[in-house]
Amino acid sequence: MADVLSNGYLLKTQDEYFEEEIALYREIDPNWNLDSSTPDGLKAASDAEIFSILDQALQQAYNSKDPSQARDGDLDTICSLTGTERDLGSFSTVEIRVFGVDGTTIEEGSLVESEDGTRWSTNRDVNISGGFGVVTATATTLGAIEAPPGTVTRIITVTGGWQSVSNIQPATPGRGRQSNASLRRERQLTVGRPSDGQLDSIIGEVFAVTGVRSVVANHNITVDPIDSNGVPIGRTYIIVDGGNNAEIARAIYSKHSAGSPLFAAGTPIIERVQSLKYPQQFTDILFSRPLYADMEVRIVVDNDGTLPGTASNLIENSILRYIDANEIQDGFNTSGFGIGDNVPVSRLSTPINQIIGAFGNSSIQSLTVNGMSSGEVVPIQYNQTSRWTRANIIVSVVQ
Prior knowledge:
The chain is an alpha+beta fold. It is built from eight helices and 23 strands. It folds into four domains: 3-63; 91-166, no CATH class; 192-289, no CATH class; 293-398, no CATH class. Helix 1 (14-28) packs across helix 2 and helix 3 packs parallel to helix 4.
């Protein structure tokens, strides 16, 4: 059978098992007829196949105990030991403007609808003042749902004094079911939840909140009154993309030291958290949502005649899957682009070549992101995250 060595499980192939059994027969009688048409030859071939199948089953059992090798249900079991659960998907969010009579309150959970029929639920109460109010709404359907500017226009939850609704900015797409590769990475982050290091502990706790896509936390421990990011001395900032405001605030509350004041580094969110142990105790928790930097991708592909008519659409889909690392199974890009991550333009060659390389010898003539070409990097600030939408991916296929 296969061997378990210090460096892992050493698998034998079916051919290796067959050759070993044939050698054992030859030790008994060098002239033994072991042709595949003979009963003994068939027996050796059958044994080799059975042993190989057993080895593969044993390897699966061995891998199921290794976080780097386990997959699907086995990986879920390992991750549950550290309190990490597979994300079944996150919801898209969009900032909307509600227009109407001053003094009108639009309650949390009010529904609006975009042109494609997607419904969105407001995340909090919002009051109309000066003719309008601004609030974030979350899609009621999981996944990467897009809403270009000016497409969220229908009011579903009728409220007296509420006259119209629209979105100035595009929606920030959510994600589909979390892949094995992404879950492994999240497990590595969330094992820091019981850490003595405060920042690691905060990041791990917030990452465990359902729907959270990315988290950064930092503390200005320099002697300068303000560090290079504009953070005052002694302040801690926490930036979170995705997830529910109240749940994120409670996660921060459970790990943050009272001696370090919080700082808003992006779009500020303030949530009041009630102590579970002392109900009379309330604390205001300050964190930030990232500022979004929209990426405009322009691609020109030289078609050698092999690409199908749907090539442009296939390339768009491939780029969006690549950016949403949850869609990638065990590839080298398991994290996508998080908060503060710069965007090397050349990385987008990978999802493009995955498509055109499957058909023939077509090639990329030009590739730019926000006007920068391959070999250049689109800079993203520490409190920003890149936002990718289909409407901003323009593919031209030329002969």
